[in-house]
Fold this sequence. Notes:
The structure is a homodimer. A four-stranded antiparallel beta sheet of chain A has the order 2-6-4-5. In chain A, strands 1-7-3 form a three-stranded antiparallel beta sheet. Chain A has helices spanning 8-11, 21-31, 112-120, 122-148, 151-168, 183-190, 194-206, 222-228; strands spanning 36-38, 43-45, 53-59, 62-67, 73-79, 98-101, 105-111, 176-178, 210-213, 216-219. The relative contact order of chain A is 0.14. By secondary structure, the first copy, chain A, is an alpha+beta fold.
Amino acid sequence: MQDLPPNPLLAHLPDPSELSETERDYLDMIAAAPLLTLGARRDLLRDGETLRTCHVIVQGWACRYKTLEDGRRQITAFVLPGDLCDLYPPLLAEMDHSLATITAIRYIELPRDRVEQLVVAPAIGRALWRDMLVTMAIQREWTVSIGQRDALERLAHMLCELFFRLRAAGLVRDDRCEFPLTQTDLAEATGMTPVHVNRMVQELRSRGLIYWKGRVLEMLDLPGLCRAGLFNPTYLHQSADPRLA
Amino acid sequence: MQDLPPNPLLAHLPDPSELSETERDYLDMIAAAPLLTLGARRDLLRDGETLRTCHVIVQGWACRYKTLEDGRRQITAFVLPGDLCDLYPPLLAEMDHSLATITAIRYIELPRDRVEQLVVAPAIGRALWRDMLVTMAIQREWTVSIGQRDALERLAHMLCELFFRLRAAGLVRDDRCEFPLTQTDLAEATGMTPVHVNRMVQELRSRGLIYWKGRVLEMLDLPGLCRAGLFNPTYLHQSADPRLA
DNA sequence: CATCTCGCTTAACCTGGGTGAACGCTAGCA
DNA sequence: TGCTAGCGTTCACCCAGGTTAAGCGAGATG
């Protein structure tokens, strides 16, 4: 593990100087919350659970998924290092999906009423809204992908999305990033079979678009991959992000 | 058109007595906003537009959609009468999808800064958050449907979802509702072709699950349709809704 | 050092749903 | 009262991607 990045909750907020004193107090309390740990490939939250606390994943990869009665499983979102994640669900009565780790993670727990405060704090609330709207846009784009793009486009699009999000989180150097997903994960996220994901990975490799070995993914031709996936990054609304050089 | 329901923004909020005076003032101003009209099958907002106002659809059906460069089109959500709809997008810089009417609609426009106030008003903000989380849950469920359910299940699931939402909005009587979607709409929403939607509609009819003619849809066997679609309504988080008898 | 497991890879075969095209019904509309 | 347009319906054909199964390499475990 690398050194710990600052709490992602903070990274998503405006400059502290724009916050009221009350808001700064909230954040101080959050910064003081103890860091918890969970190993790779475990459930953090299960469908049907009732929650009294909220989670913020500080480090590591996770995913949301739903399982049908007969066992079919669909990953509906990837939660990347630095993403806010389970801040909101406890505002509803009951989990309607599960959340599992991909890698080991570090996270904090916040009591529910603290989140309710954050959500309606002026500057913090607005920032959380903006974050939520981007998450929503990503979810819409998955719908478009699975509904309209063919297998190759879908895989290319998914890799582009993850890459752009990782880059915005400062986790890309020289077009390379750590990439802990398995082909089976990608299959469950894109609605195809692991076998077919493999075929498409081969195809992207043979076209010279990506290098992927072990846990390292490198974009050999990012514009080409974007074209192959009909990927247009505007839905990520990253333009204003200062971390993009 | 039937008589006008109250502004859906109000329907989604807690009892007015729980609101502060400031919040009640906000709502009064909203109630006073003039009602605008737009005909069926028109774009209300287009991908790429920059917005300075927000919209609340008071009456009628609409949908969100995205179009790929080569014309493939995916409907990503249906906005039903009474749903909040475009309250939030203007918090982001630019539309990343389009919004089109299905039927003629009535709507109001709110200036952007008014929405920013609403969103962080204590009681109103919390209610809007809850609404947003349900919308998000629906979007996740679409991902699951398109990713994992087969054509028949997908169609059945979509009909169940729309039916439950319409029922919560008070638009169902005796298991019947007005249903202005075409089979092509359903095709664009479920990621299949109109031809195949038609085959699946025939199948649901021949199993005695639905009656659908003109603009009327009737559930002849709702439990059966739920089973056919592997539909579990918990993700709609309707249990607490007082309008469900 | 042997064994086990997990993830990746390849191959042969099959099917759900796409494609393209034609036809018919109903509802405006001139 | 005939024309046009949109929507639903049906058919014949075909392919993208699913299915099943087997082999392989690398890291984990005893």
